[in-house]
Amino acid sequence: MVNKKEVADALRDCDAVLRGEFELSSGRTSDYYIDKYVFETDPDALDVVGRAIAEKVLQTGADRIGGVALGGVPLAAVASVESGVPYVIARKEAKEYGTANAVEGTLEEGDEVVVVEDIVTTGTSAVEAVEKLRAAGATVNEIIVVVDRQEGGRENVEDAGLKMHALTTPEELV
Length: 174
Known about the structure:
- The chain is α/β, with parallel strands linked by helices and 174 residues long.
- The protein has a domain of 121 residues: Rossmann fold.
- The chain has seven helices and eight strands; from the N terminus they run αββααβαβββαβαβα.
- The strands form two sheets. A six-stranded mixed sheet has the order 5-4-3-6-7-8, sandwiched between helices. Strands 1-2 form a two-stranded antiparallel ribbon.
- It starts with a helix and ends with a helix.
């Protein structure tokens, strides 16, 4: 079993945890930043994070993993390989050509999907992805996040009727 300390160590070891003053996607400012593109492109960090997500996915009994575009996609892919559970991608917006899907991959009506997200600050993008998956016929009750910034995201996710599992938090990281 991969624990929170191992996940936090993996993120720090690949220099994904930065100190300074940063503006977050929520518009808030922070004295630290977790660069998802660093840990999601580092094979050692991605291995640890992927194994941790896969363990959580298997505990949920989900039929599919739902990766939130863009950051959740590599996480869903590696967790899929680790767990053997197929994944789908929840787009931010449906493409306007080809299939025009909001959800990519094979999804059957009623499939239980656990959503994977990189970092939760407000939880907005995770909840929007859940809504797209539900509109496509999925049953979604849980999300797995690599980092819960503990800035109200968990409460927003839970207000949307979801259970949230965080692999690590700022206490372990900074």
